[in-house]
Amino acid sequence: QVQLVESGGGLVQAGGSLRLSCAASGRIFSVNTMGWYRQAPGKQRELVAVLSSGGSTNYAESAKGRFAISRDNAKNTVYLQMNSLKPEDTAVYYCRHDERPGSIWYSYWGQGTQVTVSS
User: Fold this and answer.
1) Residue among 85, 112, 62, 68 nearest 12 (CA)
2) Residue 5 phi/psi, 5° resolution?
3) 20: buried, middle or exposed (CB in 10 Å: 19+, 13-18, 0-12)?
4) Beta strands 32-39 and 46-52: pairing type?
5) CA–CA distance, 37 with 49 (Å, rounded to integer)
6) Burial letters for 35-73: b for 16+ Cβ neighbours within 10 Å, e otherwise?
7) Which of 11, 20, 76, 99 is 20 to 30 A off residue 31, Cα-Cα?
8) To the nearest whole number, what is the mean pLDDT of the chain?
């Protein structure tokens, strides 16, 4: 089992910045992917950015150029630096950890952290 604890959400004005953190604990397989997803009211949860333990990244188009994902493998922590925030970035942001110790993928979710961007 893997536990994820997110932090760093809050209220910010448009154009501002926030940095989200997600710390994983428990029995963690070294080859994994950690990332951020978000869900706005009335919308489906969507990918924001993911980063594998090998360094591969994938960003949503809306995040490219404004958000940067990074990780500290020694601390099992992933970060999301969000700059030039827009009101449409308002959502609950969830951390996700994926790993495949054998032939099956396992996914774990954090509890979510609210990000609100005011205009």
Assistant:
1) 85
2) -125, 120
3) buried
4) antiparallel
5) 7
6) bbbbeeeeeeeeebbbbebeeeeebeeebeeebbbebee
7) 20
8) 95
- Show the 3-state SS of 61-119: CCCCCCEEEEEECCCCEEEEEECCCCHHHCEEEEEEEEECCCCCCEEEECCCEEEEEEC
Identify residue 40 by its one-letter amino acid code.
A
Residue corresponding to tokens 């958000």: 67
| Residue from 97, 22, 110, 104 nearest 52 by CA | 97
From the list 10, 57, 12, 14, the residue with the least C-alpha distance to 34 is 57
Report d(CA 74, CA 36) in Å as an integer.
19
Q: Is the pLDDT of residue 19 over 90?
A: yes
Q: H or E segment at 44?
A: none
